[in-house]
Design goal:
heterodimer, A: alpha/beta, Nonspecific Lipid-transfer Protein, Chain A, 2 domains, two-stranded parallel sheet, 7 strands, 14% strand, B: mainly alpha, Ribonucleotide Reductase, subunit A, 73% helix, binds fe (ii) ion
């Protein structure tokens, strides 16, 4: 799977890179040994309401649309008939004319279907999508939509927990119930700020300029300033393709 | 030719009433003339005395340290304002800015009032205490031992050196250094960090008169900061316009920041877990607050490119030094030193 950001897969790549990074290992020796050095990354303001399936990168959605195109007329009818009312509403709202002039009615239906599907906001996917459609959602898209459903808290926030101890990062995972954990440190920012960090921005700079909020023993982070910087640098070096 | 109109609509012949500094001067006249003694009369010392005596020794120690830093700091900025900043405002690089010179008189006045407020308040509320006022009379007495012991005193020494040098040379780069340590670090970071701490401690020790006075002081300091940012911006603008004698201004500002920012750790030491922080001022919060101030002042207001990692590294190193130092022991050392000095001075007097 491509390392879509944010995703479990990206987080795992990041963890691996961090654990293998010499600069991080050297700078974070002793970190978390006599105190709780675990970090929670909090990504707020994920644009799930604003982003529709059609807005996602083509690489993610092309397969789904191709499958719908490849359905036989009967198969398409069955898919169409089992749709949720929420989808029907969207279907009724989209304009089916124009694009395939001269095509038969069935083909126009399919164009409208695709358009209606494209307008579904990610936040609405769980209520709009129905089992027959789900069978056509596969691969990365399937995995990402499942992660959205499992890990998004309060509609637009994702929590990632990193176990950091003595220069190593043994585990990194998305957390469905953040209230069940109380890590030593929390780093919170809107999704967009995280993308800047992943693109190479300096984490210390982001915290000091109030773009990211650091909670925990700040003094310790200052004393391990090089480790914090290396954590940011490794994020910048971890390949990422952005979902939004 | 009449100058532009102000908000109040007045114009003048010699004074540019549209100048930012005229505006600051006018605001200073309007807001900066709060009467310290009147405030004492109106609010009174009683409640503060009562609350003060109900505090635990550790809590008293924290407040005493914070106010001692302020007292020594206000005294130092008052001195350097009247001796040096007034002369700096008249330097050729500010193009005969009459309004800035006018404003500096208000500026100096408010600094002396801040000293007045703190000195009287500490004496009246916290009781008689030996601050070694008889020593080093040129600077109003020796620095309070706790201020000297943490290392905070050094920043005031540096401010004295840099403002004196700039007043003498009137060189734009020297002036940039002087104004940076004075307005950006001592006023911008330490005093503002101090206001933040006063606010926080007042949740556990609500001293009404103290809070009242500090509300006035922090409003005054807001204008001082505006002046500092405007004056430095003017120097930076001339540097960017390519004027030869202004080259090096931006670098000097950033260098002075790096050199002096460890004072934040000296100042914050009394709010760390190492001294239990009984009033819960919380050094971590203070550090973040100061970090945001640094970013706002240097990167945003002055549009410079300072490196947060360097700043953080220096503050962290100094903090480590503070942790390794026995402050109580250092305080005793300074007390003994002052006592010995007193003995020497008394002997010298007797010999005359
Ligand atoms: Fe002041
Ligand atoms: Fe001031």
């Amino acid at each position: 799977m491509v390392d879509w950001f944010p995703s479990e897969e990206w987080l795992e790549s990041y963890r691996r890179n961090l654990a293998e990074d010499d600069a991080y290992a050297a700078a974070s020796e002793g970190w978390g040994v006599e105190f709780d050095g675990d970090f929670c990354f909090v990504l707020t303001h994920l644009p799930l309401e604003e982003t529709t399936l059609g807005d996602l990168p083509d690489a993610l959605t092309a397969e789904l649309f191709d499958r719908i195109d490849a359905l036989s007329a009967d198969e398409f009818d069955r898919l169409r008939e089992t749709a949720t009312p929420a989808f029907d509403e969207r279907f009724a709202a989209v304009d089916g004319t124009g694009e395939s002039e001269g095509a038969d009615e069935e083909e126009n239906e399919r164009v409208r279907f695709r358009r209606a599907l494209s307008t579904v906001a990610l936040a609405d996917v769980p209520t709009v999508v129905w089992p027959a459609l789900e069978t056509h959602i596969r691969g990365d898209l399937e995995s990402l939509l499942a992660q959205l459903e499992a890990y998004v808290v309060d509609g637009s926030t994702v929590y990632a927990h990193l176990s950091l101890e003595d220069g190593d990062c043994e585990r990194a995972e998305l957390v469905a119930d953040p209230s069940a954990r109380d890590p030593g440190f929390e780093l919170e920012a809107p999704y967009e700020t995280w993308t800047e960090l992943v693109a190479g921005a300096d984490v210390i700079e982001s915290v000091m300029s109030n773009e990211m909020e650091l909670d925990g023993d700040v003094t310790r982070v200052l004393h391990y300033g090089d480790a914090a910087a290396a954590m940011g640098d490794v994020a910048g070096e971890t390949d990422a393709r952005y979902l939004f | 030719m009449p100058q532009d109109t102000t908000q109040s609509g007045f114009q003048a012949e010699r004074i540019d009433t549209s100048s930012k500094w005229y505006d600051l001067f006018q605001k200073g006249v309007e807001l900066g003339t709060w009467n310290v003694e009147k405030l004492f009369d109106e609010v009174g010392f009683e409640e503060d005395r009562e609350i003060w005596s109900s505090l635990e020794p550790g809590e008293q120690k924290q407040i005493r340290y914070l106010l001692s830093g302020f007292l020594d700091g206000e005294f130092a900025v008052g001195e350097d304002a009247s001796h040096h900043l007034q002369r700096i405002a008249g330097a050729p690089c500010f193009d005969d800015n009459e309004e800035m010179e006018m404003y500096m008189t208000m500026f100096t006045l408010t600094e002396h009032k801040h000293t007045q407020f703190l000195d009287v308040y500490m004496h009246e509320v916290m009781g008689e205490q030996d601050v070694f006022a008889d020593l080093n009379p040129k600077r109003g007495g020796a620095r309070i031992p706790i201020v000297q012991a943490t290392g905070l005193g050094e920043i005031f020494d540096r401010q004295g050196q840099l403002t004196a040098r700039a007043a003498h040379s009137r060189d734009p780069v020297d002036i940039a250094k002087a104004l940076t340590v004075y307005h950006m670090i001592v006023e911008g970071l330490l005093a503002r960090g101090g206001f933040y701490s006063i606010n926080k401690l007042s949740q556990n020790a609500p001293l009404p008169l103290l809070n009242h006075g500090f509300k006035f002081i922090s409003t005054d300091e807001g204008r001082h900061m505006t002046h500092g940012v405007e004056a430095l911006s003017e120097l930076i603008a001339k540097e960017r316009a390519g004027e030869p004698e202004f080259q090096g201004v931006s670098q000097a500002i950033v260098d002075v920041l790096y050199e002096n920012v460890p004072a934040v750790a000296d100042f914050g030491y009394m709010f760390t877990d190492a001294v239990d922080d009984p009033l819960e001022i919380n050094f971590n919060d203070l550090l973040l607050r100061v970090g945001h101030l640094i970013d706002g002042q240097f990167n945003e207001a002055l549009d410079l490119d300072m490196d947060h990692r360097t700043v953080v590294g220096r503050v962290a190193d100094r903090h480590q030094e503070c942790l390794e130092k026995d402050i109580d022991d250092a305080v005793r050392t300074y007390r003994d030193l002052y006592q010995r000095k007193r003995g020497v001075e008394a002997a010298a007097d007797g010999g005359r």
